Amino acid sequence: MTNYRRNRVPGGTYFFTVNLYDRRTALLVQHIEHLRDAVRKVRLSEPFHIDAFVVLPDHLHCVWTLPADDTNYSGRWRAIKTIFSKHIPPDEFRSASRHGKGERGIWQRRFWEHTIRDAQDYTRHIDYVHFNPVKHGLVAEPKDWPFSSFHRTMAAGLYPSEWAGVETPVDHTGER
After folding, report:
1. pLDDT (0 to 100) of residue 6
2. How far apart are CA 144 and CA 134, in angstroms?
3. In a 3-state reduction of DSSP, which class is residue 47?
4. Residues whose CB is less than 8 angstroms from the CB of residue 146 and which lie 6 or more positions away in sequence, other chains included
5. Predicted structure pTM score
6. Cβ atoms within 10 A of the Cβ of 141, count?
7. Cα separation, 5 vs 94, whole angstroms
8. DSSP string of 75-123?
9. Residues facing 114 on adjacent strands
């Protein structure tokens, strides 16, 4: 398997963007329970802390913190994608390459990863995650999007319910 250049910090905190292969679909929100189940199952076998998470129709963003001696976020993503894909009927287009490798055509093969550097970087990425449904025109305010950890963060008193990311975070995440 190819060894991609990824930053691996034991116990690190990371921002991720994970995309569906066909960005015109809404599989993630249509099958949100399967995605939640996949994340739950992986967290049971390979724990990690979810600092922030948002699921949009065709992609997701999240911030995770791994256990102190662990760097294997790639294995976790592979497991989440596999578990989710097993619940989706196999009717998607598959290229000859994917077909030959026995792969489904649900997810893009890779994901975007960014290692969180400091408290300011952490805050900026958490805000980015929570503001993303507004950025994509899905809702007027973050509190209106049901598939977001914004609600948990707001309940903990870290955001006011009216927070709308007035200072829109800079998009340096690799998202299109």
Report:
1. 84
2. 9
3. coil
4. none
5. 0.89
6. 15
7. 27
8. HHHHHHHHHHHHTS-S-S---HHHHHTT--SSB-S--EEEE--SHHHHH
9. 15
Q: Report the C-alpha gap between 33 and 100 in whole angstroms.
A: 30
Beta strands in the chain (DSSP E): 13-19, 49-55, 59-65, 112-115
Query: Which residues, other chains included, contact 38 with Cβ-Cβ below 8 Å and sequence gap of 6+?
Result: 79, 80, 81, 83, 84
Tokens of 156: 């903990």
Tokens 């969180």 belong to residue: 116
Structure tokens at 133: 């449904």
Q: Which two tokens stand for residue 101?
A: 């490798």
Token pair 């294995």 is found at: 75
Residue among 44, 34, 32, 16 nearest 84 (CA): 34
Give pLDDT tens digits for 66-115: 999 999 999 999 999 999 999 998 776 667 776 566 667 789 988 999 99
Q: What gap in Å lies between CA 88 and CA 28, rounded to an integer?
A: 10
- Structural tokens at position 99: 């077909």
What pLDDT is recorded for position 14? 98
The count of residues in the chain is 176
Which pLDDT belongs to residue 133? 97
Structure tokens at 96: 């000859």
Can you tell me which residue has the tokens 């993503």?
Answer: 77
Provide the 8-state DSSP code for 157: T
